[in-house]
Structure formats: structure tokens, C-alpha cells
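Example complex used in Figure S2.
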Amino acid sequence: MIKTWSYIEEYKVLRKKILGSIDRTLKSGQIFFGKELQKFEKRFIKKNNFKYGLAVGSGTDALYISLLGLGIRSGDEVITVSNTAIPTVSSIISTGANVKFVDIDRYYLLDVNKIKKCISKKTKAIIPVHLYGQSCDMEKICKIAKKYKLKIIEDCAQAQGAKFKNKFVGSFGDVGCFSFYPTKILGAYGDGGFVSTNSIKLYKKMKRIRFYGIEQNNKKNKYDNKYYANEHGTNSRISEIQSSILNLKLSHVNSWIKQRRKLAKIYTHELKDTSLKLPVENIDCKHVFHLYVVYHPKRDKIIKKLEEKNIHVNINYPFPIHKMKAYRNKALNKSNYLPITEKMANGIFSLPLYPKLKVSEVLKISKILRKILLKI
Ligand SMILES: Cc1ncc(COP(=O)(O)O)c(C=O)c1O
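Predicted assembly (376 residues):
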């Protein structure tokens, strides 16, 4: 059985080191906000060329904390895409703001030419989602945001290490939001997330929000301030154990991204000239291939045949958010406004891709897929 993703092979390689670091961390007696977290935050900031950053409980929390930090609230409007993971949108709705969806382009990403139509007096922010591991056109998005005074929150959950014009995602907008969910480019063995920013003021605010609104490390009034909320916050942190695992894995991320790109290139080579629509890497981007997403109008038949051959694929995502019961009444756009998103949702599927997937497995999947495509 070839799965879309597996951490077992990776764990086998890192097992000794991971168990050692868990043991060391537990012996230190520090559960939260200790040396491992400090070290991880510092290294993640440096690696991605951010000025400031904070680890938080999940990618979902990262988005929610960013929106709160930027003052997004009830009555405001936020622009994003419907072809994304649920949390991109649920975090907007959690603040009380409304969402306006923009259609996608040939890269499956927010179509920058359709943003302006969605802007109203109530629009406060835009969330470009660097979906599948490729950056949106951040140059154009930044230009529009500047002109209309919109905040930018980059959803980098699937794109850690991706670049636009040689600059890392997460460093263009007001905030960048990352996820360390286990399947991600850098995954913990549990939940985790990160917010990056170049603003010290926003950094400090988000730091309070992640810890019940309390000003941490306030030396002046240590005892007075320890249980005193300066503003409304939440609880969103990652443990020392998860931080120590992330510290370990961070050293491998570059080689894992290299391997993902290598495997993606093999798929592209092996599947060219078939009826599949293959992913396109924008020449301004460095794609990190969190997912290798292809499109075919006869997707369901293809998936069935692949499963008969013990090859498991995934669909990211079968339902656009604006079609879901929870959100269909929340979108502010009029009907029939996302034709490409809707068409793609009916035909996209993600082939197995993770750093420990073997080249021989990619070749095998491609060969089987080619045979299936000839017959349908
Ligand atoms: C595009 C996108 N945004 C946000 C998230 C939320 O991340 P998390 O699962 O860590 O809460 C995810 C994760 O699935 C995602 O893929």
C-alpha cells in the first residue's frame, strides 16, 4: 500500500535523537516556555529571514491570533480563497468578520486580477494562501494592499521554505502564519503553529494574545502582572517536547524540500503528455511541493483504479468552503462567482508525495497512472 503521506520512515531515521531529546526535555522539568521553545523560535526566525516570530498552538491559532492582533472584528470584511483548508476561513469567522472569496488562477492560487472587485469600504484584510507549497503573486498583492490600505496575513501553512522572487513566504505581509501539523513541510508529532512579523508592536501584541492577554516576563511588577490580562487573549502554546522535536527536524528541512522537489520533477517528467493537468511552477516562485496536485475531469474513476492497485491518493480539497453548510451563508459574494474554484474541486487529486517516498515508488505510481489514463 502506498499512502499519500507517512511519518514512520522518517521516524525510523530520527528515532534515537527524538527519544533522547524528549528524555532530556522531561528531565529539565520545564513543560512550557523554556529553552527549547526559545531556541526554536530564534532558529525559525533566522532560517526564514523574519524579524520577529512566535510559536503558537496550531496553524489555525496562528491565523486567529494574527487577525485579533491586527484588530479585525465584527463587521469587517476579509478577502481570501475558497479553495483552501477550512481554518483559513473559520479563523476569519471566529473574529466576527465576514469573508469575501476570490476565484483562483492556473496555479490554484488566489487570482490577483480579481481582488479589486471584492474590495469594499469594510474590507480590512486579505489572506493569500500559498496553497500546496507555492507562493501567491506577493508583488501584486502587496501593491493592491498598499493602495487600499489592507492588512496582509499570509497563510503559509503548506509553504514553509517556499519563495517568491527569492524571498521567503511569511515575510511579505503584516503577518505570516505557519502550521506544524505532522504532515506539513516541518511537522511536529502533535499540533503546532507560528506567526511571523516584521513589526515589534504587533509581535508584542500577539505574544500577549497567545498567553491569555498577559504581558509575559514583565520584570517591573512581576507578581502584580502575572495574572493580569492587558487585553482579551487565548491560550496557544507549544510544549517544550514539541519544540525540541521541531528543533531537531528543522535541521533536515532543506534536504526534505530538495527531495520533495526532486520527486515532483520525476512525476512531471513521467506524466507529461498525458491527459492530466499537472502542477505548474511559476517562474517567480520556488515551490516546496507540500502536495503534488493534478486535475482530471474523470478523477473519481482514476482514484478507484489507483486504489485497486493499492495506491492511495487524497483530495485537497473536494469541497470549496463556500459550498459547505457551515459557511455557505457567511460569504458575502453573490452566487456563481467562483467558476474555476468549483470546476477544479471536481477534478483535483493529490498524488503520494513525502520526502521518504522512494523514487521507485514514484515511477511505479506514474506507470500505473499512465496505463489507467490510456483506458478511461
Ligand atoms: C492552508 C492551511 N491553512 C491553515 C491550516 C491550519 O493549520 P493547523 O492544522 O495546524 O491548525 C492548514 C492545515 O491543515 C492549512 O493547510
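The two ends are 23 Å apart (CA to CA). Residues 103 and 148 are 19 Å apart (CA to CA).
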